[in-house]
Specification:
With about 270 residues, this protein is α/β, with parallel strands linked by helices. The protein has six helices and nine strands; from the N terminus they run H-H-E-E-E-E-E-H-E-H-E-E-E-H-H.
Amino acid sequence: MSKIPLKSFFKKRSYEPQETFSTKFEGAVYDIVGQFVKTKVINHSLTKGEEREDPLIEFLKANLPKTYSVVKGEVVDKLNNSSQQLDIMIFDNSRNIPFYSGGHYILPAEALLGSIEIKSKITQEEVRKILKSVSTLKNLKPFGKKVDISKKQRSIEEKVSCRYFHAVFAYDTDIAETNWAKKEMERIIRVAVEEKNDYTLIDRFYVLNKGLINPTVSMAKESKDNAECLLHFYMHLLNFIQRENNRRQTVPYLDYAGKLSKGWEKII
Protein backbone atom coordinates (compact mmCIF):
# COMPACT_ATOMS: atom_id res chain seq x y z
CA MET A 1 0.00 0.00 0.00
CA SER A 2 1.46 3.36 -1.04
CA LYS A 3 2.17 6.12 1.46
CA ILE A 4 0.72 9.62 1.26
CA PRO A 5 3.40 12.16 0.24
CA LEU A 6 4.30 14.49 3.08
CA LYS A 7 3.30 18.12 2.57
CA SER A 8 6.01 20.72 2.85
CA PHE A 9 4.95 21.88 6.31
CA PHE A 10 5.30 18.31 7.65
CA LYS A 11 8.87 17.86 6.42
CA LYS A 12 10.50 18.95 9.67
CA ARG A 13 8.51 16.46 11.72
CA SER A 14 10.04 13.22 12.88
CA TYR A 15 8.55 10.43 10.75
CA GLU A 16 8.49 8.01 13.68
CA PRO A 17 6.40 8.85 16.78
CA GLN A 18 8.34 9.80 19.91
CA GLU A 19 9.29 6.83 22.11
CA THR A 20 7.45 8.16 25.18
CA PHE A 21 4.26 8.47 23.13
CA SER A 22 4.60 4.96 21.74
CA THR A 23 5.23 3.42 25.16
CA LYS A 24 2.27 5.20 26.75
CA PHE A 25 -0.16 4.30 23.96
CA GLU A 26 0.97 0.69 23.79
CA GLY A 27 0.19 0.31 27.50
CA ALA A 28 -3.22 1.95 27.00
CA VAL A 29 -4.08 -0.45 24.16
CA TYR A 30 -3.22 -3.48 26.25
CA ASP A 31 -5.43 -2.14 29.05
CA ILE A 32 -8.34 -1.78 26.62
CA VAL A 33 -7.88 -5.26 25.16
CA GLY A 34 -7.43 -6.79 28.61
CA GLN A 35 -10.66 -5.28 29.89
CA PHE A 36 -12.53 -6.47 26.82
CA VAL A 37 -11.28 -10.04 27.13
CA LYS A 38 -12.71 -10.15 30.66
CA THR A 39 -16.19 -9.35 29.32
CA LYS A 40 -16.37 -12.60 27.33
CA VAL A 41 -17.52 -14.46 30.44
CA ILE A 42 -20.37 -11.98 31.04
CA ASN A 43 -23.67 -13.04 29.49
CA HIS A 44 -25.84 -10.01 30.22
CA SER A 45 -25.69 -7.92 27.05
CA LEU A 46 -26.07 -4.50 28.74
CA THR A 47 -23.31 -5.19 31.24
CA LYS A 48 -21.09 -6.53 28.48
CA GLY A 49 -21.70 -3.45 26.36
CA GLU A 50 -20.90 -1.09 29.18
CA GLU A 51 -17.68 -2.90 30.07
CA ARG A 52 -16.69 -2.93 26.40
CA GLU A 53 -17.09 0.85 26.21
CA ASP A 54 -15.60 1.89 29.55
CA PRO A 55 -11.89 1.22 28.78
CA LEU A 56 -11.95 3.53 25.76
CA ILE A 57 -13.91 6.16 27.67
CA GLU A 58 -11.34 6.06 30.47
CA PHE A 59 -8.50 6.20 27.96
CA LEU A 60 -9.91 9.37 26.36
CA LYS A 61 -10.70 10.97 29.71
CA ALA A 62 -7.09 10.42 30.77
CA ASN A 63 -5.49 11.56 27.51
CA LEU A 64 -7.64 14.38 26.13
CA PRO A 65 -7.11 17.92 27.46
CA LYS A 66 -9.15 18.45 30.66
CA THR A 67 -11.34 21.06 28.98
CA TYR A 68 -13.07 18.18 27.15
CA SER A 69 -15.63 15.82 28.67
CA VAL A 70 -16.34 12.30 27.44
CA VAL A 71 -19.85 10.94 28.08
CA LYS A 72 -22.45 8.52 26.68
CA GLY A 73 -25.80 9.71 25.40
CA GLU A 74 -27.54 11.37 22.48
CA VAL A 75 -27.45 14.69 20.65
CA VAL A 76 -30.51 16.89 20.08
CA ASP A 77 -31.09 20.07 18.10
CA LYS A 78 -33.56 22.85 18.86
CA LEU A 79 -35.93 21.50 16.18
CA ASN A 80 -36.40 18.32 18.27
CA ASN A 81 -34.31 16.11 15.99
CA SER A 82 -32.07 13.64 17.80
CA SER A 83 -29.21 11.27 17.11
CA GLN A 84 -29.19 7.62 18.03
CA GLN A 85 -27.59 6.63 21.33
CA LEU A 86 -23.82 7.25 21.09
CA ASP A 87 -21.19 5.32 23.05
CA ILE A 88 -18.93 8.38 23.28
CA MET A 89 -19.67 12.10 22.89
CA ILE A 90 -16.94 14.72 23.28
CA PHE A 91 -17.59 18.38 24.10
CA ASP A 92 -15.89 21.39 25.69
CA ASN A 93 -16.99 21.41 29.36
CA SER A 94 -15.61 24.92 29.92
CA ARG A 95 -18.17 26.37 27.50
CA ASN A 96 -21.04 23.88 27.41
CA ILE A 97 -23.15 21.74 29.70
CA PRO A 98 -25.09 18.60 28.80
CA PHE A 99 -28.65 17.93 29.95
CA TYR A 100 -29.18 14.82 32.04
CA SER A 101 -32.36 12.77 31.84
CA GLY A 102 -33.36 9.16 32.43
CA GLY A 103 -29.86 8.07 33.36
CA HIS A 104 -28.06 9.37 30.29
CA TYR A 105 -26.68 12.62 28.86
CA ILE A 106 -28.38 14.74 26.22
CA LEU A 107 -26.05 17.15 24.44
CA PRO A 108 -27.16 20.22 22.44
CA ALA A 109 -26.22 19.82 18.78
CA GLU A 110 -24.13 23.01 18.93
CA ALA A 111 -21.88 21.50 21.62
CA LEU A 112 -20.89 18.16 20.07
CA LEU A 113 -17.37 18.01 18.63
CA GLY A 114 -16.72 14.30 18.21
CA SER A 115 -18.44 10.96 18.72
CA ILE A 116 -17.43 7.30 18.63
CA GLU A 117 -19.38 4.08 18.17
CA ILE A 118 -17.78 1.07 19.87
CA LYS A 119 -18.33 -2.39 18.39
CA SER A 120 -17.34 -5.86 19.57
CA LYS A 121 -17.15 -7.23 16.04
CA ILE A 122 -17.76 -5.60 12.67
CA THR A 123 -20.21 -7.55 10.50
CA GLN A 124 -22.29 -6.54 7.51
CA GLU A 125 -25.25 -5.86 9.79
CA GLU A 126 -23.11 -3.72 12.11
CA VAL A 127 -21.92 -1.69 9.11
CA ARG A 128 -25.57 -1.13 8.21
CA LYS A 129 -26.29 0.14 11.74
CA ILE A 130 -23.22 2.40 11.70
CA LEU A 131 -24.24 4.02 8.41
CA LYS A 132 -27.77 4.66 9.70
CA SER A 133 -26.44 6.11 12.95
CA VAL A 134 -23.94 8.49 11.34
CA SER A 135 -26.50 9.62 8.76
CA THR A 136 -28.98 10.49 11.53
CA LEU A 137 -26.27 12.32 13.47
CA LYS A 138 -25.05 14.43 10.57
CA ASN A 139 -28.60 15.35 9.56
CA LEU A 140 -28.99 17.35 12.78
CA LYS A 141 -29.25 21.14 12.50
CA PRO A 142 -27.00 22.94 15.02
CA PHE A 143 -27.72 26.68 14.99
CA GLY A 144 -30.61 25.80 12.66
CA LYS A 145 -28.19 24.85 9.86
CA LYS A 146 -27.27 21.43 8.47
CA VAL A 147 -24.03 19.89 9.70
CA ASP A 148 -21.24 20.80 7.29
CA ILE A 149 -20.16 17.54 5.63
CA SER A 150 -18.02 19.16 2.95
CA LYS A 151 -14.27 18.73 2.94
CA LYS A 152 -13.67 22.31 1.83
CA GLN A 153 -11.51 24.73 3.77
CA ARG A 154 -13.63 27.17 5.75
CA SER A 155 -13.11 30.81 6.58
CA ILE A 156 -12.04 31.39 10.19
CA GLU A 157 -14.91 33.90 10.45
CA GLU A 158 -17.47 31.13 9.84
CA LYS A 159 -18.78 30.44 13.36
CA VAL A 160 -22.18 28.78 12.96
CA SER A 161 -21.26 26.03 10.51
CA CYS A 162 -20.61 22.89 12.57
CA ARG A 163 -18.63 19.82 11.65
CA TYR A 164 -18.66 16.57 13.65
CA PHE A 165 -15.89 13.95 13.81
CA HIS A 166 -17.57 10.54 13.92
CA ALA A 167 -15.47 7.41 14.30
CA VAL A 168 -15.90 3.68 14.77
CA PHE A 169 -13.74 1.75 17.23
CA ALA A 170 -14.01 -2.05 16.90
CA TYR A 171 -12.34 -4.89 18.75
CA ASP A 172 -12.71 -7.36 15.88
CA THR A 173 -14.10 -7.92 12.39
CA ASP A 174 -15.42 -10.97 10.54
CA ILE A 175 -13.31 -10.13 7.49
CA ALA A 176 -10.21 -12.27 7.02
CA GLU A 177 -6.78 -10.81 7.73
CA THR A 178 -5.39 -10.89 4.18
CA ASN A 179 -5.99 -7.57 2.43
CA TRP A 180 -8.33 -6.59 5.26
CA ALA A 181 -8.57 -2.84 4.62
CA LYS A 182 -9.56 -3.18 0.95
CA LYS A 183 -12.21 -5.79 1.75
CA GLU A 184 -13.57 -3.79 4.69
CA MET A 185 -13.76 -0.63 2.61
CA GLU A 186 -15.50 -2.45 -0.24
CA ARG A 187 -18.08 -3.78 2.20
CA ILE A 188 -18.70 -0.33 3.66
CA ILE A 189 -19.24 1.08 0.16
CA ARG A 190 -21.49 -1.84 -0.89
CA VAL A 191 -23.75 -1.52 2.16
CA ALA A 192 -23.84 2.28 1.78
CA VAL A 193 -25.09 1.88 -1.80
CA GLU A 194 -27.75 -0.59 -0.63
CA GLU A 195 -28.89 1.76 2.13
CA LYS A 196 -28.50 4.91 0.00
CA ASN A 197 -26.25 6.43 2.65
CA ASP A 198 -22.99 8.35 2.39
CA TYR A 199 -20.09 6.26 3.70
CA THR A 200 -17.78 9.32 3.74
CA LEU A 201 -19.73 10.57 6.78
CA ILE A 202 -17.61 8.08 8.77
CA ASP A 203 -14.39 9.94 9.52
CA ARG A 204 -12.30 7.04 10.86
CA PHE A 205 -12.80 3.28 11.12
CA TYR A 206 -10.42 1.56 13.53
CA VAL A 207 -10.16 -2.19 14.20
CA LEU A 208 -7.73 -3.55 16.78
CA ASN A 209 -5.00 -5.81 15.38
CA LYS A 210 -5.99 -4.79 11.85
CA GLY A 211 -5.51 -1.05 11.35
CA LEU A 212 -7.17 2.24 10.56
CA ILE A 213 -9.30 3.30 7.58
CA ASN A 214 -10.09 6.86 6.53
CA PRO A 215 -13.31 6.35 4.50
CA THR A 216 -13.47 10.02 3.50
CA VAL A 217 -10.55 9.50 1.12
CA SER A 218 -10.62 5.67 0.86
CA MET A 219 -7.16 5.27 2.40
CA ALA A 220 -5.96 2.94 5.12
CA LYS A 221 -3.07 1.99 7.35
CA GLU A 222 -2.91 -1.77 7.93
CA SER A 223 -0.86 -2.71 10.96
CA LYS A 224 -0.88 -5.12 13.89
CA ASP A 225 0.97 -2.47 15.88
CA ASN A 226 -2.00 -1.34 17.99
CA ALA A 227 0.03 1.35 19.74
CA GLU A 228 0.94 3.07 16.50
CA CYS A 229 -2.58 2.86 15.02
CA LEU A 230 -4.21 4.07 18.23
CA LEU A 231 -1.77 6.99 18.22
CA HIS A 232 -2.94 7.93 14.71
CA PHE A 233 -6.60 7.51 15.73
CA TYR A 234 -6.14 9.68 18.80
CA MET A 235 -4.16 12.41 17.02
CA HIS A 236 -6.70 12.67 14.20
CA LEU A 237 -9.49 13.03 16.77
CA LEU A 238 -7.58 15.55 18.90
CA ASN A 239 -6.54 17.68 15.93
CA PHE A 240 -10.14 17.85 14.70
CA ILE A 241 -11.81 18.76 18.00
CA GLN A 242 -9.18 21.39 18.85
CA ARG A 243 -9.60 23.07 15.47
CA GLU A 244 -13.39 22.78 15.43
CA ASN A 245 -13.82 23.99 19.01
CA ASN A 246 -12.10 27.28 18.17
CA ARG A 247 -14.73 27.98 15.52
CA ARG A 248 -17.85 27.46 17.62
CA GLN A 249 -20.18 30.09 18.99
CA THR A 250 -21.82 29.61 22.38
CA VAL A 251 -24.71 27.13 22.52
CA PRO A 252 -28.06 29.03 22.34
CA TYR A 253 -29.50 27.43 25.48
CA LEU A 254 -32.52 29.77 25.54
CA ASP A 255 -33.62 28.30 22.22
CA TYR A 256 -33.92 24.92 23.94
CA ALA A 257 -35.90 26.37 26.85
CA GLY A 258 -38.70 27.87 24.75
CA LYS A 259 -40.16 31.32 25.30
CA LEU A 260 -40.04 31.04 29.13
CA SER A 261 -43.04 33.40 29.30
CA LYS A 262 -45.69 30.98 30.57
CA GLY A 263 -46.99 31.74 34.06
CA TRP A 264 -45.61 35.28 34.31
CA GLU A 265 -48.11 38.00 35.30
CA LYS A 266 -47.79 41.74 35.77
CA ILE A 267 -48.24 42.48 39.49
CA ILE A 268 -48.06 46.31 39.56
